[in-house]
Amino acid sequence: MTALVAVIWRPTPDRIPAYGKVWQFYRPLEFIHGLQWKTFDAGGPSFSRAASRNAAVRYAQSAGFSRLVITDADCIPEKNALLEAVAEADDTAVHLPYTSCTTYHPDGRKAGNFSFTCGGCYVTTPAAWWAAGGMDENFTGWAPEDFAFMLAHETLVGPMIRHNGVLKSLGHELDPSRQQQETLDAGTQRYRLYEKAHHNPDMMRALVG
Description:
Strand order of the largest sheet: 2-1-3-8
CATH class: Alpha Beta
Shape: globular
CATH superfamily: Spore Coat Polysaccharide Biosynthesis Protein SpsA, Chain A
CATH topology: Spore Coat Polysaccharide Biosynthesis Protein SpsA, Chain A
Largest sheet: 4 strands, mixed
Number of helices: 7
Strand content: 15-25%
Number of strands: 10
């Protein structure tokens, strides 16, 4: 079941503890299940999860990985849901190894539970990822690229495939450099275009380019 675990990661001191916990989760899976760990940062002055995720998929293609897990460096799925998603991943759709998400404060206390979320951890093949257009690299910083990608996927491919389980979103202090208001505003404006193109394949294809 060899697959690439692509960790989207640009180190800042506040994020290192969560990153360490994610590493502790995946490390045994490399030896037992062949999930090979590698971090990705597309570079540039403003961190882009969208561009870094696309870079991970391009790397997987060039390195011969037929499947990959694309995960934020502060998210941990349940092992059984993850392994099920990796085993079942094919070119028909992107998989989400969870059906709900629990968020945590930096001190470890639970912050909330969400029955609907669509980011943090994906399991996919390169073909399934690009069938939805890949992630829009116009989104940078803290932006709704996850929700935009979901709308594109639903329009161009169909619903993402979910696997029963809970995704843990580990708490950390927010880095002000990733929270610039101009970036937030630009991301919100671009997301509105995805809302307009939802369920309109021609409009969505023109948007994702």
